[in-house]
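Our consortium's second objective concerns turning raw sequence data into structural hypotheses that experimental partners can test. To show how far this objective has progressed, the report includes one record in full. It was chosen at random from the queue rather than selected for favorable results. The single chain below, 418 residues long, was entered without modification.
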Amino acid sequence: MPVESLPAVHLDISSETGPLRQVVVHTPGVEMERVAPSSLPQLLFEDILWVEHARREHETMCRVFAKVIGHPDGVLQIDRLLLEAFRSSDARERFVDLLCRLLPERNFQAFERELAELGPEELTLFALSGVSALPINAQPLPNLLFTRDVAAVVLDHLVLSHPATAARTRESIIMRTVVEHHPAFEGIRDRVIKLPPGVTFEGGDLLVVSPDTVMVGHSERTSFGAITSLARVLFERTAIRRVLVVNLPKERSCMHLDTVFTFVSPAECVFFPPIMDQRGLGNVFTFTPGDGPDDLRCRLHDHVVDALEEAIGTPPRLIPCGGDDPLSQQREQWTDGANFFAIAPGVVIGYERNARTYEQMARNGYRVVTAEGFLSYHAESAFEHGEKIAIKLSGNELSRGRGGARCMTLPLARTRLA
C-alpha cells in the first residue's frame, strides 16, 4: 500500500496471546535465491530453500493472520516498509552511514557516496540481497525471514536488537532505519529502547508474560549484560516490575528462549522438557526493582513453573513438545515444535510436521485444523474467537530454515486481555 495510506503504528504488547492487531513479517524473496550452499555457515542459515514453495507457505501464514486481524493494514512486510522509508534521502544516507560504522570489516565505506546515491528500489534490493551495480561483495539476508529477532515490543515500547553476530547486523540496521524514518513510526520514536554497546540481544529471547512481567532467555544470542540493561530501562520507563530470566544452554539447537518455550493461551505453554523441566537454583531467577534507580533485586526459583505461577496467578499448564517420548521431543524441537505463535488466546499456528506435538494439543482441548481448512471455513465470514484451535501450517520448506511461526513474526500490537 502507498506509504501515505499506512496509518500510524500503535505499539501495545501486554501478553503473548492477546488477539493480534498488527505484525511485521518478511515473505522470502530474492535474498533467499542468492544463498549458496558454501555460504550457509557464514550466513547462519541451515539449508537451501525451494523459494517458490517457501513463499507460498509464508503467504498462507500471512493470510491466516489477515483473516484473524480483520483489517487491511494488519500484516506489514518489512521490505515494503524499508522501501517506503528509503523515499527519504535522509533515510538512505543514514542507512549507509550505519552500514559503514557497524560493519567496518565489509569495507562499505569505500563506496559510501555511491551507495547513498542509489534510488529507493536499488538500495532496498542491495539491503536485502547484496545485489547492486557496484563492485561490492555483500551477502544476502536469508535470516530476515525471522523478523522476531530484529526487535521486541514490550507494552508501548520497542526494543531494538543488538545481534550477536555480524551476519545479522544488517537486519538490525534495516529495522532501525524503518523505525527512525518511516512516517508510520513517527509517533513512537520517543519510546524506542536502544541497549548500550557491547551487549547482545535478539527478540526471540523475550516473551511478554503479562502487563507487569517479561520473560527473557540468557542464551547464546542474548547476553547477561543485555538482560540487566533491559531490566533497568523497563523498570524506569514502563510498568514492567518483574523480569523472569531463564538460563539456557549456549547452543545453536536452542538459540532463543522461544525455541524451547512459547505461550499458546494465557495459562498454557508448549515447552521442551529436557531444558525447561530442569530443577535447580540458578536455572531460573527474577529481577525486580531495587532501592535505587539502577539497583536490581534478584530472587532464585527452583523451577520455571514456580516463577510463572507467581507472575500469572495460577499454575501454568505445560504441554510437552513431541509428547512424552524423549526421542520425539528432540526431533520435534529440532523442527520448531515448541515455537508456536498465538494469533488470539488459544488460537495458535505452527508447523504441520510436528505431529506428536499436535496430538498433545488435541488432548488439551484444541481443535486441530490445517491452515487451508481454517481459511476455507472462514472464507465468507469474519473470524470470531470462541474455541481453542491449533492451526497446522505446511512448512516443509520454511522449516528447513530452523525457525518457526513465532520466529517469523514481530507483533506490534495485540488487544489487551481482560
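The partners drew two points from this record. The mean pLDDT is 94. The first strand starts at residue 20 and ends at 25. Both points have been shared with the crystallography group to help prioritize constructs.
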